[in-house]
Amino acid sequence: MTTLMGTTSMMACADLLFSPVFHKHPNLKVAFSEGGIGWIPYLIERADYVWRKHKYYQNIHPTVQPSDLFRRNISGCFIEDDFGVKSRYETGVDNITWECDYPHSDSFWPKSRARAEEVFADVPDDEVHKMVELNTRRIYNFPEAGYTAHTADAGNPWRPNNGEPADASDTWLQGQQHGDTAEIKKSLGDLFTGSKA
């Protein structure tokens, strides 16, 4: 259960920030999932403090702050994290992605989209769009899929309705609710290839 608390993510993140990994591999991207994002602002602040105090006699890079490495190479994922969302500017909106964690017990499936609406209720649309889609596309180099969910409100493709399928033609959601694995795989393939059924 400690994995779900972010404690192992914190340790791994600190180890990476003080290691030569990101200096040797500047294009490497690491995403921490399953542990929320609320811990990130503290870790970044503390890592920079430790770096400033000890950079001249430890085997760490003396001119690049850990926070700079974090912003360039690391992202954090969350399902539900009120503090993390409120402190998103300290983490960096470009370094945050929302995850639904389907099919694990930590998720809100089948109401993931409705729960996302609640989580992001007070967050500006452009920031939400980054956290639920654009950051993931950039970090993982996912192409535009050309897919628009039938459950999305017009003009705000990330703003869902109440999580229910809009109609019987929303086969991707229907397939997931009824456990149609073949349809799910086909739909997910369509999302990443851009083909339309």
Automatic annotation (TrEMBL):
<dbReference type="InterPro" id="IPR006680">
    <property type="entry name" value="Amidohydro-rel"/>
</dbReference>
<dbReference type="InterPro" id="IPR032466">
    <property type="entry name" value="Metal_Hydrolase"/>
</dbReference>
<dbReference type="Pfam" id="PF04909">
    <property type="entry name" value="Amidohydro_2"/>
</dbReference>
<protein>
    <recommendedName>
        <fullName>Amidohydrolase-related domain-containing protein</fullName>
    </recommendedName>
</protein>
<feature type="domain" description="Amidohydrolase-related">
    <location>
        <begin position="14"/>
        <end position="142"/>
    </location>
</feature>
<dbReference type="GO" id="GO:0016787">
    <property type="term" value="F:hydrolase activity"/>
</dbReference>
